[in-house]
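Forum: Protein Structure Q&A
Topic: Joint prediction for protein chains with partners

I've read a bunch of threads here and the consensus seems to be that you should model interacting components together rather than docking separate models afterwards. I'd like to see that in practice. Below is the full input, 765 residues plus whatever partners are listed. Could one of the regulars post the assembled result?
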Amino acid sequence: MDDTPAVRTLAEVLPTHEPPSPTTPFGRAARDFLYGEVWSRPGLSRRDRRWVTLTCVAAADSPQPIEDHVHAALASGDIGLEAMLEFVLHFAVYCGWPKASHVEGAIARQWDRLHRERGEQTPSWPQLSDDTLGPAAWDERFARGVEEFIDVNLTPAPPPNSPYRHAGILNFVFGHVWQRPGLTRRERRIVTVASVALDDSPVPLQTHVRAALHSGDLTKEEMDEIVLQFAAYYGFAKGEALADAVETAWASKAD
Amino acid sequence: MDDTPAVRTLAEVLPTHEPPSPTTPFGRAARDFLYGEVWSRPGLSRRDRRWVTLTCVAAADSPQPIEDHVHAALASGDIGLEAMLEFVLHFAVYCGWPKASHVEGAIARQWDRLHRERGEQTPSWPQLSDDTLGPAAWDERFARGVEEFIDVNLTPAPPPNSPYRHAGILNFVFGHVWQRPGLTRRERRIVTVASVALDDSPVPLQTHVRAALHSGDLTKEEMDEIVLQFAAYYGFAKGEALADAVETAWASKAD
Amino acid sequence: MDDTPAVRTLAEVLPTHEPPSPTTPFGRAARDFLYGEVWSRPGLSRRDRRWVTLTCVAAADSPQPIEDHVHAALASGDIGLEAMLEFVLHFAVYCGWPKASHVEGAIARQWDRLHRERGEQTPSWPQLSDDTLGPAAWDERFARGVEEFIDVNLTPAPPPNSPYRHAGILNFVFGHVWQRPGLTRRERRIVTVASVALDDSPVPLQTHVRAALHSGDLTKEEMDEIVLQFAAYYGFAKGEALADAVETAWASKAD
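Posted by a regular:
Agreed with the consensus. Here's the joint model:
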């Protein structure tokens, strides 16, 4: 096997993945562009690049990349089990329950595989206490949901005048999920930006990109790297829409 | 296993599905938000919620959720085989033939499993006669297609000046598929609304949501529940776009 | 503005598109990887690369890339209006009616823009006669549909025992759409391969990739270039699944 920077990066990104010498244009582009260029760049941490990539592969339903990248995130030590399981729930909110269910299955398989490869017993997943569910009093939950919505989105919260907004957005998405520990708000923003980019619903795309930059939780340099990482895994078509949203949001920050 | 309202709803929605005690944030949220909240809500029937869910899981390509929800729809008795197979064709139009092909495979597998579980021989699917294909005279078919287009969309039909409009829209989609028995127009509207929401092509999204509400085939309360069911199964980003389309269409109905 | 091979290729691919000097990692990767590498490669014609790209951008719902690539295909002379409108119908079958509706709107806008830019009156689209719809006798249509299915897919046709298979597959998709003139079978295969790759339903992906290679309509070299073009526009995650399908199909051809 070659020992080039591209191949060394590939080995760090996907440990225990034995890459054959690429014999196709796609294989060579994966080695040279994806690993030799995109993953090797400074400006965004390896862990943050994994958040973008995990979101993309899980949404893309590509069976083997999902297994490979979940395994690699855990095996490399870049992402622990707890954070990975929090990712599943956040991802479920933005890309829907079925895809999240599938990626949680992949986590179970790869967690088990990881321990078998190490000759270890597979630890069971931690029992969650009901403390993790947040306030059970709905008025308290709702009030915190409104605050969290404003904090995250930097816009006023919508009135609770539909099931989607009341039970969904204010009580569940912002009243609970965004407030959970185990993933930082900055990490939740990364997963959300990748999700709205692949979903390409125009208003959420603009809102979340703008909030990520205007809050200062992500710098322009980091966001530019997120755009490239996303474009590599979900394509330059949707990547262009994300790139445009970033430039628009950055220009409005200067004002 | 717990016996709570959430768990009882889950058991009705997914019979013969043995849910493990949720040990992950995602599993917890599935039990408490998805089943304890969304599926338990009044305002939209269980069968109608299944139409939204089936559309979402089939479009999401998540293998196990597709099998689970197809099985559950048939096993619960909420949806019969004939209606399920009509769904496949309608879904094929709105989400593409490959995904429809996959869900039809899931129906075959789950129909077989259902009967094996009951110790019964699996009834074969009926051969369909050409009587079900509608008029064989193009001018008659086209004229009915134009009428159906106007009836469903509440807008004038396009001129037949492209293959898509001529052979596709007027002769096949409205000239045949929307007129088939086995699914009511109201049910076809539910599948279509979920489809245009996940496809997020802006004009079809506005057109079909508006027509669903302005025709009176779906009430505002039902549509609001569809938005929440959809957001849970295909994500809150696209859910937001659907929610906005519903509000816009409802506001214009008052005018 | 630079005058490099990448920039010259970009100017051929997207004429009248004024590219700003790339100031972001994404912009530079678009110039260097997308145009400097992928579009510049031999092994697949410019027109065939456009079919892959049009399928990807239309499915991706990215508003500006759709307008840009539709305009460029027409303005460059690489694809004429008739073929573009046939593409819409074929694309509707494989990626669903709403996205096809949107791309047909883009074609109307860009056809008009093209003629305004040239100071010409915009020719209207031709009214299509019912002669273009094929046989109106259902038994004849069905028989031809079965033949076409076998010819295209290199597998037996399914029995007509569901609406999807009877009214859909045998009477419409293969009974009509695949037989229409205006796009060659080879071109229909290119659009279909890109569609099943982005849809990622496993069996249609394998079937259509295998049939494209085993029929000889697409060579291994051309297919390898399609994989790379697709991966660039729809991402390396789904690209990997397509690459695997190609290798599997090619290996089985040797047997």
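Chain C touches chain B through 58 residues (CB under 8 Å).
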